[in-house]
Each structure stands twice: as C-alpha cells, then as structure tokens.
Design brief:
about 260 residues; alpha/beta; Rossmann fold; six-stranded mixed β-sheet; 9 helices; 10 strands; about 35% helix; globular
C-alpha cells in the first residue's frame, strides 16, 4: 500500500497456505473483506471452507502468508495486542459449541468474564441483553439440552456477539436446521449486519441462505486447493465456468467447458 493510502478492508489474507503433512488444503489465497460486508465462503465437501475460516481467525496454523485483521498482522501479534485482537472477532462454530453443563447466560458470560473481566452481575446482565437480541429473552437459565437446535445456534451467536466484535465468523450457521428455522436465522444475521454494521464472514453450502444474505461470495475448489471463483450470486449463476454454474443453479450441465 502506498504512503497515505487508506483501505476500508477489515480483513486481508495475503498469499496464505495451509498444509498438513505436506498436503495443501489451501494455497495461494488472496482475499480482502470490506468493513460491514457479508462475505460467504462456499464450495463442495472437503474444499477447505472451514479451514479458511479457521485460518483467518487464527485457529488453523498457516504454512505461509499473512493475515491482517483490523489493521494488525495476526501472525506477529502477541500478549496484550493479541488479546485485543481476539476481542475484535466473534465465532459461531458449526455445532454451537455451548458448554452443556452451563446455562445459556453462563455460556454467553464466559468471554465477558475472561476478556472484559467484568463482575459476574454485570456479565450476566449483558448476557441477558445479548440473548434477547437473538430472540432468547427469558431463556437465560435454560441448559443447551433443554432448547432446540435453532435456539442453540442463536445462543452461540449471542456468545459470539458478547464483546461487540466488529467481525463475526459463522461456520455453517444453518446446518441441521429445518427450512423455517434456517430462514429465521438468515433474517437475524441480516438484521444484525444492517443494524450493527458488523462484518460477516459465513461458511455455508445452503443456496437459500446464500441468496437471502450473501453480498459477495468466494467459491473454493478441492482440486486446486484454492479459489475457483469470486463475485455476487448473479455473477456466479452466469459464470463462464461450468462447475460454478452447476453449483449455484443446482444442476449438471452436459458437455465440457
């Protein structure tokens, strides 16, 4: 970047690669996410969608490359800088990853106690507000086993939002949900993005969710361990690449490229 040049990118992945035992899961990944953007990561099974999300968050080690998150080089950050960086992101894991022995309020309070170091009473009040924000007002004392799968996803989202991070990473938020519950969660994600201006990076293979929420899409391909295509949903549906058209139009076209 030239001197004096500014960017509205809150995430930048520069030539990153992830490999295990010498086998590349991802390589040559260059990606920039704008502040407030709703970016979806899609692709077939085993193409590295969740691995890319985990690499950006810092949960999967990079073999090479650089992640710039909120202006900070994540690989070089340490100590207080790394703690401050973690406060800028929230993650909703595919399973929700709630602690089964804790109530919803206790689950949501965890980052408030660990990172914000709030007193228990203050943490619980904020947890109550976050749960209300995702439609779970009155469920503070329920255990995860006592609520539905869709409600557990909402509770996981409330925990991801506990510290008011400017970026949320959502790994298959609609996986395992019925169509109505999935549509309700899509609407909630859209409302949070538009109301709070939160940047959303979402891993998904649900075409209905992509159509309802995605602002921009990157498609990964297992064979190349990298990005096959990037663009809007309409651009993907009319792509010159048959694999991309097949995926987004949910059909198999005969013949070759």
């Amino acid at each position: 970047m030239a001197a004096g040049e500014t960017t509205d990118h809150i995430i930048e992945a520069r030539d990153i690669a992830v490999a295990y035992a010498g086998n590349y899961i991802l390589r040559d990944i260059d990606l920039a996410v704008r502040t407030g953007e709703r970016l979806f990561i899609v692709g077939g099974s085993g193409c590295g969608k969740s691995t890319l999300l985990r690499a950006i968050v810092g949960l999967a080690p990079l073999s090479k490359g650089q992640i710039i998150l909120a202006g900070v080089d994540a690989r070089k950050a340490g100590g207080e800088q790394m703690e401050a960086l973690y406060r800028k992101v929230g993650v909703l894991f595919q399973s929700g990853a709630l602690f089964a022995s804790m109530t919803l309020a206790e689950n949501v309070s965890l980052p408030l106690l660990d990172f914000a170091r709030l007193k228990p009473a203050a943490a619980r009040e904020i947890a109550r507000m976050k749960l209300a924000l995702v439609g779970l007002d009155g469920y503070e004392n329920h255990l995860p086993a006592e609520i539905s799968g869709g409600m557990r996803k909402r509770a996981g989202l409330a925990r991801a939002m506990a510290l008011d991070p400017p970026v949320l990473f959502l790994d298959e938020p609609s996986a395992g949900l019925d169509p109505i519950t999935s549509a309700e969660l899509d609407q909630l994600i859209l409302e949070l993005n538009q109301g709070l201006k939160t940047t959303m990076v979402v891993v998904s293979h649900e075409l209905a969710s992509i159509a309802a929420v995605a602002e921009r899409i990157i498609m990964l391909e297992k064979g190349r361990a990298g990005i096959l295509a990037m663009g809007t949903e309409d651009e993907m549906k009319t792509s010159e690449q048959r694999k991309v058209r097949d995926f987004f139009n949910r059909r198999l076209e005969r013949g070759t490229e």
